[in-house]
Specification:
Length: 335
């Protein structure tokens, strides 16, 4: 690693992270106090940036955050997919392989439509470096690995923000999702010739949804689904993320424009199930649900729909009580 990156991490970012999380204590040998963090790696001078290393890259997952990067930064030259996703719940190896194949197919089609070059990075970060890589908590560092592996290519690389700056938190511990502190992490990982930047740092998810309506490709390619199957399409009602995204599209008044990629008719016939999911997330203090609240309050919702939604939430709470309070994320059900 370069000396500059080493100093930025060991003298700035890591001491701050360590202090906020109580990871190490000062040995105070020199009376200086402080949190002393070392990285054992050979040091190199700044890498000379070659002519033509001016690419602007970003990921190509086609989720809300990812697609917002393309809508907001038309100068993007390269779309990227890195095989660093890992597991969201308890997906089998076969399921993970299907997910990777789906991601590749979708990225090829999308990058071709946008007119950017596609960069594919396969790796054994999952099931190699980590036995079972968890998506939450590791994806930021996986992204950084690939960005720096190709550092002579980039002048700038945008990472889609998972949370806006209101969700900034560096004190959640080692296993917390780095998306909460990427805004600082990436600033310290930027060097003289490469900037790792966050897109949408001031935009909550619901505002990204509103912005995406003006980006026509979102109506053909937006893909948020946690349910991995051979079709690679959004399930619309079998995973919490599809339900949340459809709610966001509905409460901002644009769901009908996304009928090609979501089952809008199912939503209209089963609105109570989606409302129940919104209530459930509110009860959990979910920030995406809180963002939706002012929009949903403005919607006219029949009393019958609200009552049916409450019945579903009560049933879910009772089922959770019967499980001894344990969450059962692997068997998500809209009802
Ligand atoms: Zn889904």
């Amino acid at each position: 690693m370069t000396s500059r990156l080493y100093l930025q991490l060991t003298e700035q970012f890591l001491p701050a992270f360590a202090k906020l999380n109580g990871l190490t204590r000062s040995d105070n040998k020199n009376g200086n106090g402080g949190w002393h963090v070392k990285i054992y790696a050979p040091l190199a001078p700044e890498i000379e940036h070659p002519d033509g290393g001016n690419a602007i890259g970003t990921g190509c997952s086609c989720g809300v955050d990812s697609m917002h990067v393309y809508a907001a930064h038309p100068a993007i030259t390269h779309g990227c997919v890195w095989n660093v996703h890992g597991i969201t719940h308890d997906e089998t190896n076969d399921t993970r392989n299907i997910g990777w194949a789906n991601l590749l197919r979708q990225a090829r089609e999308f990058s071709s439509e946008v007119g950017v070059e596609l960069v594919v990075g396969d790796s054994n970060y999952d099931r190699g470096c980590f036995e079972d890589l968890r998506f939450d908590g590791r994806i930021s560092y996986g992204n950084l690995f690939f960005i720096f592996a190709l550092q002579k290519l980039w002048s700038r690389y945008y990472v889609a923000s998972g949370y806006d700056i209101a969700g900034f938190d560096m004190s959640g511990g080692l296993l917390s999702d780095p998306a909460h502190y990427e805004w600082v992490l990436f600033a310290f990982c930027s060097l003289s010739y490469i900037t790792v930047a966050i897109d949408g740092v001031d935009r909550p998810r619901i505002e990204k949804i509103v912005a995406l309506v003006k980006y026509p490709l979102s109506k053909r390619f937006l893909n948020v689904c946690w349910n991995i199957n051979a079709t690679g399409r959004n399930c619309s009602y079998l995973c919490a993320k599809c339900m949340r995204t459809m709610l966001e599209l509905w409460c901002t008044g644009v769901l009908d424009q996304y009928g090609t990629i979501f089952d809008v008719q199912y939503f209209k016939r089963h609105k109570h199930e989606y409302l129940a999911e919104y209530y459930r997330c509110l009860l959990h203090g979910d920030e995406y649900a809180r963002e939706m609240r002012p929009y949903i309050r403005r919607k006219k919702i029949a009393l019958r729909v609200k009552v049916l939604a409450c019945v579903i939430v009560i049933k879910k709470i009772l089922r959770k009580c019967l499980r001894g309070g344990r969450r059962d994320v692997s068997r998500f059900s809209p009802r």
